[in-house]
Write a structure and sequence with these properties.
Blueprint lengths: L9 H42 L15 H7 L10 H4 L1 E5 L13 E5 L4 H7 L9 H26 L1
Helix pairs in contact: 1-5
């Protein structure tokens, strides 16, 4: 009886997968930093929209300043007196705090100005969960980066 025997290179595929994973791990911090900057820009854009009375892409709106506050600071822009709040926005890749899963989160975004805690009580600075629009904005760069990294390993194999 005739047989067809296909010698499939499973070990080669396992080796390639292992090398791809190592390559992804080596480049992880770089992509975290890049994505951190993308998220920071999304947060700053939303802050700017909200500070001018609009709804940010994060779905959040802020109450306007009291008329006496706006008059005292000579501006109707919400949350911006000295730029201290905006300038305090920090992004950390591979943060030191544990995420909800107990793992170290990949990216931590925080306003670090002392008064940000008080500001956030009346005007939410950051969304509680990643907005879909923001997730879509970072999804493509992640996919492109992963594909390029794996493809580079495949090309080295060939």
């Amino acid at each position: 009886m005739p047989n067809l025997v296909v010698d499939f290179p499973f070990q080669q595929i396992r080796d390639l997968a292992s090398r791809s994973r190592l390559a992804l791990d080596r480049k992880r911090q770089a992509i975290q930093q890049t994505l951190g900057m993308v998220v920071k820009n999304l947060v700053l854009d939303a802050f700017n929209v909200k500070s001018h009375g609009g709804r940010g892409a994060d779905g959040i709106t802020w109450l306007p300043d009291k008329p006496s506050t706006a008059k005292a600071k000579h501006s109707s822009v919400i949350g911006v007196n000295t730029r201290q709040m905006i300038d305090s926005l920090q992004v950390t890749a591979g943060g030191s705090e544990s995420g909800s899963s107990g793992n170290v989160p990949d990216i931590v975004v925080a306003f670090t100005a002392t008064h940000s805690v008080y500001f956030d009580q009346d005007r939410q600075l950051l969304p509680e969960e990643m907005p879909d629009q923001w997730a879509r904005a970072i999804e493509q760069p992640v996919q492109d980066w992963m594909q390029a990294t794996v493809q580079a390993e495949v090309d080295r194999q060939i």
